[in-house]
């Protein structure tokens, strides 16, 4: 994986991802061409960099790791490992307060030292992911605990198109 330099962003060629926390949308770009977009859900607590804030961090990030390629749709993850469960209504009812991380994980790492990388504002150490969510969780509304939630279909599409090293710009 080659980590892009800030001066090289956004890339003229190649895939990059934009997350707009105001509109709760994600746009996937191929260079300067919009490839596709979808609704997402970022943090209910708004945006911010600080550890333990429950906020979605802003700025340039990179996909550091892609987890779950061989897992089924709805696979449940805890600590970035599959539990062997597959989400369904009964599981959701049994654990109504669980922050579900489903299907795939794209683990983000900040690229801006002192802003979203290092110290108490490090996105990777905050375990900020792009991940799947149960079907009853809203998209297009800020409702997560800090991560970026997506529907399974669009998450799998993103997972397939945006390997580790892909830049991600989160802004409001």
Question: Class in CATH?
Answer: Mainly Beta
Q: Which stretches of 5+ consecutive residues score pLDDT under 50?
A: none
Q: Termini, distance in Å? A: 28 Å
Count of all domains: 1
Number of helices: 2
Largest sheet, spatial ordering of strands: 3-2-1-10-4-7-8-9
Search tags:
172 residues; mainly beta; L,D-transpeptidase catalytic domain-like; 8-stranded mixed sheet; two-stranded antiparallel ribbon; 2 helices; 10 strands
Q: How would you describe this structure to a colleague?
A:
The chain has 172 residues and is mostly beta strands. The chain has a single domain, classed as L,D-transpeptidase catalytic domain-like (Beta Barrel). 9% of the residues lie in helices and 34% in strands. It contains two helices and ten strands, in the order E-E-E-E-E-E-H-E-E-E-H-E. The strands form two sheets. It has an eight-stranded mixed β-sheet with strand order 3-2-1-10-4-7-8-9, with helices on one face. Strand 5 and strand 6 (81-86) form a beta hairpin. The longest helix is centred in the last third of the chain and has 10 residues, at 152-161.
Offer a concise description of the structure:
With 172 residues, this protein is mainly beta. It contains two helices and ten strands.
Protein topology:
Layout: E1 15-20, E2 25-30, E3 33-39, E4 59-67, E5 75-78, E6 81-86, H1 89-94, E7 102-110, E8 129-132, E9 148-150, H2 152-161, E10 167-171
Parallel strand pairs: 1-10, 8-9
Antiparallel strand pairs: 1-2, 2-3, 4-7, 4-10, 5-6, 7-8
């Amino acid at each position: 994986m080659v980590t892009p330099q800030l001066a090289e962003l956004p890339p003229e060629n190649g895939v990059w991802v934009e997350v707009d926390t105001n509109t709760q949308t994600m746009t996937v770009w191929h260079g300067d061409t919009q490839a596709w977009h979808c609704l997402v859900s970022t943090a209910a607590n708004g945006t911010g960099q600080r550890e333990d804030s429950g906020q979605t961090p802003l700025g340039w990030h990179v996909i550091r790791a892609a987890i779950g390629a061989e897992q089924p749709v709805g696979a449940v993850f805890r600590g970035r490992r599959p539990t062997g469960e597959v989400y369904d209504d009964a599981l959701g009812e049994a654990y109504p307060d669980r922050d579900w991380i489903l299907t795939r994980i794209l683990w983000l790492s900040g690229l801006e030292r002192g802003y979203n990388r290092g110290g108490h504002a490090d996105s990777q150490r905050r375990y900020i992911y792009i991940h799947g969510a149960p079907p009853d969780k809203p998209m297009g509304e800020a409702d997560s605990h800090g991560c970026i939630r997506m529907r399974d279909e669009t998450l799998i599409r993103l997972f397939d198109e945006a390997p580790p090293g892909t830049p991600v710009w989160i802004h409001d």
